[in-house]
Specification:
Length: 246
């Protein structure tokens, strides 16, 4: 055994107390709260720190860590090298695994899965049967739900809503629209162009199509694009407008 339980406290939970050294933990260290031994594996290096709480039928295993004020409950699973921290909550039948991180005020619940090196943070919500994986990031006030998939190096943030059978991947950047289908992206020589509702997102710049058509040369010069790159992006912006936005 690597830990024992303290006496049950007023909140109905017990502290975990290390019985031996492992990872960064030393024998005698007092960790966070569990309802019972079923919540934290006695194997590997997983641990619950600070005021974090794991209860009901939730389980932390592998080398996963739950710390600060995070809560994992319901039938949720946190495993591998995953980390849940801040005021984040993982609950329902949700799973966080691999090297994934959930932090800030984020919520992952229902049957959602967050895996790989993905990050969900700030006030983001991932739920339903949604999957966030790879090196994707979901943050801000974004919502990913339904059967949506966000993966690769994609970033979903702002007030974006990604749901239904939406697929957001590659270097896509979504911050505005509501998306229920595969998001259209155009990978050019310098930055990816993402079609985001009425907006085009190019690098860190996001404007409606009219603004891009009128100002792409000026924006490109300020961003250090070459004349050839500006022309490449101009042609693609005009193509997108003529094909998808008229």
């Amino acid at each position: 055994m690597k830990y024992k339980l303290s006496e049950r406290e007023k909140n109905g939970l017990c502290r975990v107390i290390a019985l031996k050294d492992f990872g960064y933990i030393k024998a005698g260290d007092i960790g966070g709260y569990v309802e019972g031994e079923h919540n934290l594996s006695q194997e590997d290096k997983c641990w619950i720190y600070n005021n974090a709480k794991v209860f009901e039928n939730a389980r932390v295993s592998g080398d996963a860590e739950v710390f600060e004020n995070a809560r994992v409950f319901g039938d949720a699973r946190v495993s591998g090298d995953a980390r849940v921290s801040g005021d984040a909550e993982v609950f329902g039948d949700a799973e966080v695994f691999g090297d994934a991180e959930v932090f800030g005020n984020a919520r992952v619940f229902e049957n959602a899965r967050v895996s790989g090196g993905a990050e969900v943070f700030e006030n983001a919500r991932v739920f339903g049967d949604a999957r966030v994986s790879g090196d994707a990031e979901v943050f801000g006030n974004a919502r990913v739900f339904g059967n949506a998939r966000v993966f690769g190096n994609a970033r979903v943030f702002g007030n974006a809503r990604v749901f239904g059978n939406a697929r957001v991947f590659g270097n896509a950047i979504i911050k505005h629209g509501q998306h229920t289908k595969t998001v259209k992206t155009f990978q050019l020589s310098k930055h990816c162009i993402t079609l985001d509702g009425d907006y085009l997102n190019i690098g860190c710049q996001s404007y409606n199509i009219k603004h891009w058509l009128e100002h792409y040369e000026e924006i490109g010069k300020k961003a250090g694009y070459t004349a050839e790159e500006i022309e490449e992006y101009g042609k693609t912006i005009r193509f997108i407008f003529g094909t998808f936005m008229k």
